Amino acid sequence: MKRVLWLVPAILLISFTAKAQNTPQWEIAGGYSFLNANMGGPGPSFHLNGGYGSLDENFNSWFGGRFEFNGWGGSVDGTNVSAQTITYGPVISFRRFDKLTPYVDIEVGAAHASAGYLGISNGAFKPAIAPGGGVEFRVNDRVGVRGHANYLYTDFLSLRQDNIQVSAGVVFYIGRK
User: How far apart (Å, rounded) are the C-alpha atoms in residues 131 and 147?
Assistant: First the structure.
């Protein structure tokens, strides 16, 4: 424990003395998304693969809003299924480093699942809540790479599903604040 205690002042010192980066007005991102669905819920847990796209507007250097769409597909017990989410919510970014931007977010919206998803007989829309966070690595002033993870809450068949979503993709920075 004593060996790790020196990290706290070091991180604080770096956080307060590091050069802040320029804040883009907009961020457009897209890439691969993985869904680990229905972990620990009733019925089987399964994995789906797909993609995501997001549009962020930064209101200032630390606060913005994100609109995000995710789509996944795959086979569960021999049945082809798909799921999509469309969400929006606030993003709090920590722009204290030149190349690295950690952030947290919480998005609220809707989830859609096709027939066969968790045994539902028809496609359905249900509420979705997705708190999470990630990090962006800035390649240059126009392009970055983003890694992101969310806990995704859904409620199909009146039963709670605990899902984990992991994404990785490219970010394009547009304009400056």
Answer: 14
| The two three-digit tokens of residue 137, written as one number | 């690595």
Residue 60 tokens read as 């200032």
Q: What does residue 123 show for φ and ψ, rounded to 5 degrees?
A: -60, 150
pTM for the full model?
A: 0.83
What is the C-alpha separation between 148 and 31, in angstroms, rounded? 11
Which residues are registered as beta bridge partners of 135?
102, 147
Count of beta carbons in the 10 Å neighbourhood of residue 35: 24
* pLDDT tens-digit series, residues 80-110: 999 999 999 999 999 999 899 999 999 999 9
SS3 23: coil
Q: Is 101 helix (H, G, I), strand (E, B) or coil?
A: strand
What distance in Å separates the CA atoms of residue 130 and residue 140, rounded to the nearest whole number?
29
Across the strands, what pairs with 74?
A: 81
DSSP three-state, residue 99: coil
Domain boundaries, the chain: 23-174
Q: Which CATH number fits domain 23-174: 3.30.210.10, 3.40.50.2000, 3.90.78.10, 2.40.160.20?
A: 2.40.160.20
